[in-house]
Amino acid sequence: MAIEQTFTGNTEFGLWLRHQPEFIERKLYITNIDWFVLDNETEKWLLLEEKRYGWYVKPYQHHALSIINKACAKDKNYRGLHFINFENTNRADGRTQLNNKDISIADLKKFLLFDESIIKKYYDETDIIFEKLTPKIVDNVPKLKI
User: Fold this and answer.
1) What pLDDT is stored for residue 140 in this prediction?
2) Please, where are the H alpha helices in 9-146?
3) How far is the C-alpha of 78 from the C-alpha of 67, rounded, in Å?
4) How many CA atoms lie within 13 A of 35 on its CB side?
5) Is-contact 19 53, C-beta < 8 A?
6) What pLDDT score was predicted for residue 8?
7) In what order do the strands lie in the sheet with 96-98?
8) Which of the residues in the chain have pLDDT under 50?
9) How far apart are CA 30 and CA 32, in angstroms?
10) Cα separation of 5 and 13, whole Å?
11) Considering the entire predicted model, what is its pTM?
């Protein structure tokens, strides 16, 4: 059975990619990474996947991101693949979680500035890529079909 991926809020190229019959028939999983954060002074870097409305990545995206995370882990400056999840659309209209833990704006800024103590505080030892397939933000957050 072919898998057609739907997503709103994409670029024209993204829409084209996700609706090509050849790609659907081949069951290609086409996804993107939301944020690449690089400290030019230290060359530390991380990847950040953003979700809104309490959504978490779907299993096919987990698989793709786990492949990327494993390959990137070989770089000593890599600080991981992390998930930021907004209860609604941003910090102003609901809770924010980083790797399934509530985070303050002050900690989020420190995290993005590569404060090692903050990265460790929000790093999930169980490997969020493989273990965290279930939403944790709020049980009754309405889910949008994407």
Assistant:
1) 34
2) 12-17, 21-26, 59-72, 105-112, 116-122, 128-131
3) 14
4) 14
5) no
6) 53
7) 35-38, 45-51, 78-86, 96-98, 101-102
8) 1-3, 5, 7, 126-146
9) 7
10) 14
11) 0.75
Amino acid code (one letter) for 128: I
As beta bridge partners, residue 98 has: 84, 101
Cβ(97)–Cβ(91) below 8 Å: no
Residue in 69, 78, 44 with CA at minimum distance from that of residue 128: 69
Would you list the domain boundaries of the chain? 1-30, 33-131
Distances (CA, A) of 106 to 7, 43, 100: 32, 22, 17
Return the structure tokens found at 133: 């397939």
Contact 114, 39 (CB under 8 A): yes
pLDDT tens-place string over residues 124-146? 654 444 444 334 333 333 343 33
Residue 81's identity, in one-letter code, is L
Residue 97, C-beta contacts closer than 8 angstroms, at least 6 positions apart: 83, 84, 85, 103, 136, 137
Asked if 51 and 57 count as a contact pair (C-beta separation under 8 A), the reply is: yes
